[in-house]
Design goal:
By secondary structure, this protein is an alpha+beta fold. Helices cover 46% and strands 13% of the residues. A hairpin with a 2-residue loop joins β2 (145-149) and β3 (152-159). α1 (7-23) crosses α3 and α8 (285-315) runs antiparallel to α9. The protein is globular, with a radius of gyration of 21 Å. The two termini are 41 Å apart. The relative contact order is 0.10. The chain binds flavin-adenine dinucleotide.
Length: 395
């Protein structure tokens, strides 16, 4: 096993670092609405123009056809460039990280040639319509129904927790097309144009003061059958492909970013007064121990990420092992921001935004989402138990 980066990787790293120095925006990202969408799409367009969009996407779909390791190097250079925003907080996230990859794996040629270039060029925003009020962890219980009428599906029902629905152009939508079939059958994965009549989007304000989420209501929404990805009633298989990207590789940027967050936290602990009211926080034994543990754990997360990438390169698709990384990452993310609040103390009550230098309270509040979104930690534990360790299913 060779754990060093190749000369080509190192050259790529230098190229990325130089480009980022010259092109990374320095202004803060607008927190919501049309301004946020414009900011995120402008950044995606800058990436595309510079040849940094779709680094690991195949060339035939407009990407650079480079390795996942090089994609990871890019994320790490981005995190080290001290950016005023994180890549995972972009409304281009779904298109780039699981909508686009699902189309590559399961879409037909027309769907790929229409949608993939638009995602990469930063022309469109995608969102995900999977969860419903009665179907989250148990996604296969979804009940939003779709009836075939001529060459269209007519969709009626409700989704919830749809991130960026308000600013999205397209949605990866799961609907029930055969209510008489067993629950994992009879589901269809369809591309929904969010401007279609009959869609009502109602934003949900979170405790972190963002309105990224929305409830989405569908009242006889007509979607062409040509938008079905895979076969009608075979959507569960397509959804598993989407979730394998979402749980396997989509959070790579965030995993890499966490190591820069821990270094910022160590600086913060040098600057802030510790619990004894005299010495810096870093001089406190317990805080120093937790900081050292966090630094070791982000290094372990980095190693797990590289191991996951190497496994995905061998098999072609992220496997259930991605759930181990997602689980460790989600819980570690929360520990890191809890530690930040313990260092800051009561000053943390002053609520700040989500992005930007020296901002800790907003991300702390947002960190609770890390053990829920994309499957809760309980669900990741079930996957690790059943599909990685091969333990018997308890029902
Ligand atoms: C930041 C964020 C972004 C999101 N974005 C989207 C999005 O864009 N699109 C979308 O469709 N959804 C999105 N979601 C929703 C997310 O996928 C669901 O919240 C998640 O799947 C859990 O579903 P639920 O909220 O219905 O909780 P439930 O499924 O009701 O779970 C409640 C509790 O029961 C536990 N539980 C449930 N079943 C089991 C089991 N079998 N074994 C052990 N424990 C179990 C869960 O772990 C949890 O603690 C997002 C969520 C977050 C936090």
């Amino acid at each position: 096993m060779n754990l060093d980066f190749s000369p080509a990787d190192e050259e790529f790293r230098d190229e990325a670092r130089t480009w980022l120095r010259e092109h990374l925006p320095r202004e803060p990202r607008p927190p919501e609405g049309a301004e946020m969408r414009a900011f995120d799409l402008a950044w995606q367009q800058t990436l595309y123009a510079g040849g940094w969009a779709g680094i690991n996407w195949p060339k035939e779909y407009g990407g650079r056809g480079l390795t996942d390791i090089q994609q990871m190097i890019w994320y790490s250079e981005f995190a080290n460039a001290d950016p005023p925003f994180t890549l995972n907080d972009s409304c281009t996230f779904v298109g780039n990280n699981h909508g686009g990859p699902t189309l590559m794996a399961c879409g037909d040629e027309d769907q790929k040639s229409f949608h993939l270039p638009r995602i990469l060029r930063g022309e469109v925003v995608w969102c995900q319509g999977f969860s419903e009020p009665g179907a989250g962890s148990d996604l296969a219980s979804l009940s939003t129904k779709a009836v075939v009428d001529g060459d269209e599906l007519v969709v009626t029902g409700q989704k919830i927790w749809t991130s960026y629905a308000e600013v999205a152009d397209y949605q990866e939508l799961l609907v029930r097309t055969d209510p008489s079939a067993p629950k994992h059958k009879g589901i269809t994965w369809v591309i929904c144009d969010m401007t279609t009549p009959g869609i009502d989007i109602r934003p949900i304000r979170t405790m972190a003061h963002t309105t990224d989420f929305a409830e989405v209501f569908y009242d006889e929404v007509r979607i062409p059958l040509s938008n079905v990805v895979g076969e009608p009633n075979e959507g569960w298989r397509v959804a598993m492909s989407t979730l394998s990207f979402e749980r396997g590789t989509a959070f790579m940027a965030d995993q890499i970013d966490l190591s820069a967050v821990v270094e910022d936290l160590i600086d913060l602990a040098r600057q802030r007064t510790g619990p004894d009211g005299r010495r810096p926080a870093i001089a406190d034994d317990e805080l120093a121990r937790r900081l050292a543990t966090a630094r070791a754990e982000v290094a372990a997360l980095g190693a797990m990420t590289v191991a996951g990438i190497s496994r995905t390169q061998r098999t072609g698709m992220p496997g259930p092992e991605g759930s181990m990384i997602r689980l460790f990452h989600g819980e570690l993310h929360q520990r890191v921001y809890q530690l930040a609040l313990d260092i800051i103390g009561v000053d943390a009550f002053e609520l700040t935004g989500i992005d930007g230098e020296g901002v800790w309270t907003g991300p702390f509040l947002q960190s609770f989402a890390y053990t829920i979104g994309g499957g809760t930690t309980d669900i990741q534990r079930n996957i690790v138990g059943e599909r990685v360790l091969g333990l018997p299913r308890v029902r």
